[in-house]
Amino acid sequence: MTAKGLKKLLLVGNPNVGKSVIFGNLTGKYATVSNYPGTTVEVSTGNATIKGIPYVVTDTPGVNSLLPMSEDEQVTRDILLHEDFDTVIQVADVKNLRRSLLISLQLSEMGVPFVMALNMADEAENLGITTDLAALSGSIGVDTVSTVATRKKGVSKLKEVCRTPRHSTLSITYGERVENAIKAMEPLLPEAKISKRSLALMLIGGDSSLRIWLHSLIPDASIDALEEIVNNLQAQYPEPLGYYINRKRLLAVDKIVKSCQSRVKGARKGFRQWLGAITMHPLWGLPVLLVVLYIMYEFVGVFGAGTLVDFMENTVFNKGINPFVIRLFDYVPAQFLRELFVGQYGIVTMAVTYSIAIVLPITTTFFMAFGILEDSGYLPRLAIMVNRVFRLIGLNGKAVLPMVLGLGCCTMATLTTRILETKKERVIVTLLLALAIPCSAQLGVIMGMLAGISGEATIIWALVLLSVLFLIGWLSSKIIKGEPSDFILELPPMRVPKLKNIVNKTIGRIEWYLKEAVPLFILGTLILFTADKLMLLGLAEKIASPVIVGLLGLPEKTTTAFIIGFLRRDYGAAGLYAMQKAGELTPVQVLVSVVTITLFVPCIAQFFITAKERGMKTAVAMMAFIFPFAILVGSALNFSLRFLGATLK
Q: Could you write out the three-class secondary structure of 417-448?
């Protein structure tokens, strides 16, 4: 994970405290992102030169505790447990010092040398929060630096102090009975990169994730003895030991916060605080949401899918690249090769044209819009606003986060369902992601198609999806057994997104699209080309004709788009978009087709991730439900529109 011989620096902190920004300040834009061994959690690593000394810098997932309650927290704890680091930088949100000091206390108990970056100092100042850095440093025994990472303020000072990190002097006692248990456990525990005291406290606090590691280092008799000590200790307390330990830590942390931080009474709330409150209001938050959706529609659906796609497709490809490549292949004698590259299902004329000319402009504008929503702090507020509504379908507001992430990529959003506390919630959200949440590339193409007919069509499409989402969610909450969980979510402040951050995020996501999606477009085209040569497409169109033509009222040709949509959602939508541009679909057919393909089976990557996360049986059951249900909804919409005589023009 790190280069041999280089000094090693680790970033640790709560979620949403600016760790990634400080990581970027230290390393520049050059970093590698890889899964931590044996997990799906991504860890970023990069190189930095600090005062002439080369370092390898690792950015860990955000954590609320080093007593793991999630896979992210376990990865961060395991990095501290297994690997040597010369320096740890704890990045803290100075506005939420209490929460950050809980991490500081655990780092101190681990015996890890660290420095503290008190980030978001500008936002704290706006809120009237003042922190005595000298008093705080004296209380915890390590250097503290005030930073504003987005403006690189304080980063130079942070680089200075991180060369000489200190072991924290912060410590507390947990009462005679707990302390005696810790002393009894320490001789039984193996040597590690962190202190035996911290290991003992993890076990007392209920950490079961250490079991495999302990079994690899100490005999079963020692493990049994450790468990007996913990069980005997728990028998002496009426409350869970983890709760008791956390309460003791909070009492110690509150004393420190009280001694070194103050807030100006009656500090006037600024515009950002007012805006943050409005976005969460049960009444006024809805108009804000509608305005956000309208702006996204205009930017992605009209500008991205209209102006940019027209330029890329008609000017760049149809008048430039494609005619040039076709002329080049006129010199190729083999007709098979000409058709393979520049025919009806050609790699250049279809795969590259679809992926670059049609889908890339749309996904780029969507990635930009989504990045702004992320960096502004709006998404967590959206979760709070919809919490009451989501309760109706057995979920809480936190479930909106995977769903919104699903608008970027449903495959990765399926992985993020791990943030939900119960199996019931994870299954429901996974089903809704597979059924009613279009990914960014597909959504962008669909917005482009709908923008080409009328606003009425867009409203109908959205209402159908929302109705399906809540109907299936409500039914699932009644059928799937389990209890809902509590709703606890950390709120970042509202911010003005930084252009540089948005550009960097968009570039990174475009790189992902080019590496991951474009090859699948080429694969899908090769499958279509092969199926066409074997005359399988025509056969599929005839077999599906009663459904596609009879029930959905669509041309037989749309069968190809639905088939290939299983390989790549946006590819199927792009096929429909191309038919619309060619005048092969009426406005009613456009609406019916986009509703059906949105609800249609998820892409193959999402299917496999669903099988991995929820089990193959569950994944197959979801597919068996989604396919006929999508056809049913599309058919009902088709007959309803035709019965009402709707034209949607």
A: HHHCCCHHHHHHHHHHHHHHCCCHHHHHHHHH
C-alpha torsion angle, residues 634, 636, 638, 643 (rounded to 10): -170
Cα(619)–Cα(516) distance, integer angstroms: 23
Q: How far are the Cα atoms of 56, 604, 641 from residue 559, in angstroms, in the given order?
A: 52, 17, 21
Domain ranges, ordered by start, for the chain = 7-167, 176-263, 285-644
Q: Mutual orientation of helices 558-565 and 587-599 as an angle, nearest 10°?
A: 20
Task: Give the CB-side neighbour count of residue 478, counting CA atoms within 13 A.
Answer: 6
Residue 416: is its pLDDT beyond 60?
yes
Residues 6+ apart with CB under 8 A from 223: 211, 214, 215
Q: In degrees rounded to 5, what are phi and psi of residue 9?
A: -130, 135
Q: pLDDT tens digits for 283-315?
A: 888 888 788 878 877 887 678 867 888 898 889
Spatial distance between the Cα atoms of 8 and 3, rounded to a whole number of angstroms:
9
Tell me the C-alpha distance between 356 and 411, whole Å: 21
Give residue 52's region: left, alpha or beta (phi > 0; psi -120 to 50): left
The one-letter code for the residue type at 419 is I
Residue 6 — φ and ψ, nearest 5°?
A: -90, 150
**Cβ neighbours for 163, distance < 8 A, ≥ 6 positions apart:** 50, 51, 53, 87
Distance CA 305, CA 295 (A): 14
Choosing among 3.90.550.10, 3.10.20.90, 3.30.9.10, 3.40.50.300, the CATH entry for 7-167 is 3.40.50.300
For the segment 527-549, what is each residue's pLDDT rounded down to a tens digit?
878 888 888 877 877 787 788 88
Instruction: Indicate the angle between helix axes 360-376 and 285-296, nearest 10 degrees.
Output: 150
Query: Class for domain 176-263, per CATH?
Result: mainly alpha
Strand partners, 127: none
Residue with tokens 């087709």: 593
- DSSP summary character for residue 84: -
Cα–Cα distance measured from residue 178 to residue 512, given in angstroms and rounded to the nearest whole number: 50
Give Cα 254 distance to the centre of its chain: 32
Taking Cα atoms as reference points, which of 406, 423, 391, 404 lies closest to residue 487? 391
Distance of CA 384 to the CA centre of its chain: 17
